[in-house]
Design brief:
The protein has 4 helices and 7 strands. The chain is an alpha+beta fold and 156 residues long.
Length: 156
């Protein structure tokens, strides 16, 4: 009888340890962090569905911009986000590539500029959508055209 009680306690203790281990493993495997900015693209941003996964779109955009001598400030292939350094004055590009259907990405390219500097406000507060015909908007359109030509585009 005592042997049966001992085996039951050991089995319960083992199940309890395994369930705690599984919970800790699950908790550490799922990281809700991202390197994408907390803000959404401006409504004037360019949008298209490209025939490639988000990581490939981001990597290709990175190589295109670097070849075009536009410095890339930040790129993360896993989060499918890219941001350039300032160019042509105070212009900047940002690219978001979100999964659409398998093998395709919904790409958003934002062209912004900062008309003024104000250390008391955040950088995003000072940014405005690049006006049509500006250096930032032209670069965004060129990048979008290159992505469409090289990777293909889907029209719904």
């Amino acid at each position: 009888m005592r042997k049966l009680e001992f085996e039951m306690r050991n089995r319960l203790a083992l199940e309890f340890r395994i369930s705690h281990f599984a919970f800790v493993l699950l908790l550490t495997a799922c990281t809700p962090t991202t390197t994408r900015p907390a803000f959404a693209p401006m409504p004037e941003a360019l949008n298209v569905v490209i025939n490639a996964p988000p990581e490939r779109v981001t990597q290709f955009a990175d190589s295109l911009l670097r070849a075009d001598t536009i410095g890339v400030r930040f790129v993360n292939l896993r989060d499918a986000f890219l941001e350039t350094r300032e160019f042509a004055g105070r212009h900047r590009l940002r690219l978001w590539a979100d999964p659409d259907v398998p093998g395709k990405s919904r790409v958003t390219i934002e062209a912004v500029y900062r008309p003024s500097e104000d250390p008391s406000r955040t950088r995003r507060d000072l940014e405005r959508a690049a006006p049509p015909g500006s250096a930032g908007q032209l670069r965004a359109e060129q990048l979008l055209a290159a992505l469409k030509d090289k990777l293909g585009v889907t029209t719904y």
